[in-house]
Design a protein that fits this description.
By secondary structure, this protein is α/β, with parallel strands linked by helices. It is built from 15 helices and 22 strands. Strands 1, 2, 3, 4, 5, 19, 20, 21 and 22 form a nine-stranded mixed sheet that branches. The protein has an eight-stranded parallel sheet with strand order 6-7-10-11-12-13-14-18. α4 packs across α5, α6 crosses α7 and α7 packs parallel to α8. The longest helix has 16 residues. The two termini are 32 Å apart. The model has no long low-confidence stretch (mean pLDDT 96). The structure holds zinc ion.
């Protein structure tokens, strides 16, 4: 009996993930795997779904979002429409030092109400029960384990006995399939950790083949020193390093990303192993309480920052802090105090307009630069548009409008480069035997539609998305499929 593929993408421009030129051909999918991808025409059976790419649509491996905060979203928003609609099929969770596990009631940005699981296996069991749309692989977060082991408000280095307990958390996470350790050294409580503490934990990740992924200590005036610290942590611990959302904030620092990339190139030439990611926007976003207090707020900050999510005062969402203060007749310190001390106020997320377009171009040109949305999936507010727009925006802005990189190279950054780095063998390439994570998009029209004023809008130009051989987007429409899997680092099959 002849066996036919489940799905054939017919007459596509194949971007196989290698970064090479696109090649015309068919992509055949069966039993959740890529059967073939190339010029030979694939026969279809009566039950085969044929997707007609008409010679003009690109068929690529599904995109890998290497910087997400979707730990809680796998439970709260399991359809992950904001990622699936961009063509993302795998997500790296647990970034910036915050992971959804271990969870023992600590209230941080990745925490899930009522969550109580001691480790990655517990988290995996909880998220897998309901199903979710994208694959996910986890980092274990330093801020999360430090909060549990030492306490969120202990502003001191860890003691040796505490480091030993944190190291056990890292080892256990690695045994259970994590791909590395993340830090967020700007945030509480990670900011109180000296490099020596992190070296001990990164060494535990390195023993198990993991990665050290860092939101570095400073992304503005001390960018270069902070990149040097991350490189040094890698050298001392023996752990490969990945620098998250590489950027230079503050007008006086614009242009510095060229210097930090040069430092990374020099380190790599000397035997280090450092990679990066960025998102294609000149605004950043995060928990407002981490950036400003009644004591530190000033007019410039209030002018450059707006409310994204503000649980106690939803009417502030989407508005500049300075404008809200004027409307409310409040001095800036009084407004910040009102927001941060109200019930739920510490969950306020702000957006800051502080980066330069030139630095985004410098970033996208670097061959080790992956794409990470850093999207914060708080759908009650007006989130940074990167949540919905990051991947299509790279094509619209840096492939099409500015011609900085080719379609094939953009696809490589979003697929094989990320899969190799974050321990996802069998993904990131359209080759026979690979898992069938696939996106089909129109290179002439793919674009982000989400804006800062209207951020919860799905992009244009993404036609079909397939996760583990199952259609998640069919002709631009969500199917509601929950075919994602919780993956284990380095495991060729599913975790
Ligand atoms: Zn971060």
């Amino acid at each position: 009996m002849p066996s036919f593929p489940d799905i054939v993408v017919r007459d596509a421009l194949i971007a196989d993930g290698s970064g090479g030129p696109l090649a015309a051909g068919d992509v055949a999918i069966g039993d959740g795997l890529i059967l073939s991808a190339g010029p030979e025409a694939v026969p279809a059976g009566p039950a085969t779904a044929e997707l007609d790419a008409r010679g003009s649509l690109v068929c690529a491996p599904g995109f890998i979002d290497v910087h997400t905060h979707d730990d809680a979203a796998l439970i709260r928003h399991p359809g992950l429409e904001f990622k699936i609609a961009q063509g993302c099929t795998s997500l790296v969770i647990g970034n910036c030092g915050f992971s959804g596990f271990p969870a023992t009631g600590v209230d941080d940005i990745e925490s899930v109400a009522g969550a109580d699981w001691p480790d990655l296996d517990g988290y995996r069991a909880a998220v897998t029960a309901g199903g979710f749309a994208c694959n996910a692989i986890a980092l274990v977060g330093h801020n999360t384990i430090r909060s549990i082991v030492i306490g969120r408000d202990e502003s001191r280095p860890a003691r040796p006995a505490e480091i030993a307990v944190m190291r056990d958390h890292v080892r256990r996470a690695m045994e259970q399939g994590a791909c590395g350790l993340s830090t967020g050294l700007i945030y509480t409580p990670g900011k109180w950790a000296p490099a020596e503490e992190i070296i001990e934990l990164a060494a535990a990740a390195a023993e198990a083949g993991g990665l050290y992924v860092s939101h570095i200590r400073n992304e503005g005036d001390r960018l270069l020193e902070s990149v040097a610290e991350a490189i040094g942590i890698g050298a001392e611990s023996g752990c490969p390093v990945h620098i998250s959302h590489h950027k230079a904030g503050g007008r006086q620092n614009w242009g510095k990303v060229a210097g930090s990339l040069a430092a990374i190139d020099a380190a790599n030439a000397g035997g280090a192993d450092v990679t990066l990611d960025f998102y294609p926007y000149t605004a950043s976003s995060g928990p407002m309480a981490e950036y400003v207090s009644p004591e530190t707020v000033d007019a410039e900050w209030a002018e450059l920052n707006q409310f994204a999510t503000c649980p106690p005062f939803p009417a502030y969402q989407g508005r500049r802090v300075s404008a809200v203060a004027a409307d409310e007749g409040l001095a800036l310190p009084d407004l910040v105090r009102r927001v941060l001390t109200a019930p739920g106020g510490r969950r306020t997320i702000s957006i800051g307009f502080g980066m330069s377009e030139g630095d985004l171009v410098t970033n996208v040109r670097h061959p080790l630069m992956m794409i990470g949305s850093d999207g914060i999936p708080d759908l009650d507010g007006l989130p940074h548009p990167r949540l919905y727009g990051t991947f299509p925006r790279v094509f619209a802005e840096y492939v099409r409008n500015r011609a900085e990189i080719s379609v094939g190279e953009a696809v490589r950054r979003m697929t094989s480069l990320a899969a190799d780095r974050f321990g996802l063998p069998g993904r990131g390439r359209l080759v026979p035997g690979a898992h069938a994570d696939v996106v089909v998009f129109d290179p002439a029209t793919i674009r982000d539609v989400a804006t800062f004023a209207d951020p919860k809008r799905e992009p244009d130009g993404v036609r079909w998305v397939i996760v583990n051989g199952v259609l998640a987007v069919d002709g631009g429409r969500h199917t509601g499929a929950r075919a994602g899997r919780m993956l284990s680092s380095g495991a060729a099959d599913v975790g």
